[in-house]
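are you around this afternoon, could really use another pair of eyes. what follows is a protein written twice so to speak, once as letters and once as structure tokens for the fold. i want to understand how the tokens follow from the sequence so walk me through it. anything you notice is useful, everything is just below.
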Amino acid sequence: MSASAVMVRDTTPASGIAAPVFLHVFPSFGIGGVPIRIATIANHFGARYRHVFVALDGDTRCADRLAPELAAQIVVPKIEKHRPLATLARIRGFLGVTPHDLLLTYNWGSVEWALVNRFTPRRPHIHFESGFGPEEATSQIRRRVLMRRFALARSSRIVVPSRVLMRLALDVWKLDPRRVSYIPNGVDLARFSAPPDPRALPALVRAPGEVIIGTVAPLRREKNVARLVRAFALMPSDQPARLVIVGDGPEQPALDALAAQLGVADRTIFAGYVAAPEKVNGLFDVFAMSSDTEQMPNTLLQAMAAGRAVAATDVGDVRDILDEENRPFVVPCDDAALGAALGRLAGDAAARARLGAINQARARETYGFDRMCAAYQDLFETSLNRAARRP
């Protein structure tokens, strides 16, 4: 099985004892919520584990998030999915020649790897299901349901970050409840509660009395930032407000055109990708989320840690993640409903301050990064120990 390695960092742990090797299979190791979270967790554990990160689409940008001292290899395997049987054979070959102690697969795009591992060569396997693309935003595709049901039936664990996904895994995919674990995402509270940096958004110069509505999102179809632009255009005209969109992606040209069409281009800032979102969240008065599909979005936790009031669409676990007092501003996936929620928050500074404080307290009490890492360590060690006891 041939593969092209695009980066290698292979260090020896200080103890001299070989650490377990984790083989991570990502549909993409680009800049996105799941790769960033796993890279951050890998950095947290440091020399305890070694890593091979597989990027199936060739996008390896998240490699820049890995600590320089981390024992890690980034690999782009030469696997083409248009020939299913050949694909499975190539995956089998890759698993057979790549030493690893634990296989970790992520989302639908890696499910073939779970399928192959079910048979041979079999290693302890953890599958992480964190959300869906636009094609499954409102309903499950039956062939995918059946594939997940079969491919994941013998996985050591299936990990989900939301209660919605937990119900799907048990009630729709029919997975063994003893194998399904709910581990909510965590946020680095110290990092995201720090004061923002106005220099991070040089185009943003706040006018007197102006309310800043902001979002941080890749500009992809399922994030439906167009809904946010339309909702912003529906806000009361007597409320001075600015919309700041942090992120880049294929929807950018259409969003530029939409803002111009709706007459809000002069009040909308497309800030592009920002590598350090902790520097910008605190610049917003209201954090907005307009997605068609989410489960437990990291950007929402980051906004809460920054002490922001939130207006969002009612998808995944968003309503339950926020403090109860903020939930009236979680609305259906509708332009007018989101616009009304934004308008109410924009017009009430006291409510924004109160909701921001209680969201921050909830993030601190419930969604700490250390709590998530402790759950992951228990997950990893349990899977490795079970494998060691296997005859």
Remarks:
- Residues 1-15 have pLDDT under 50 and may be disordered.
- Residues 156 and 172 are 19 Å apart (CA to CA).
- The chain has two domains: 3-186+369-389, 189-366.
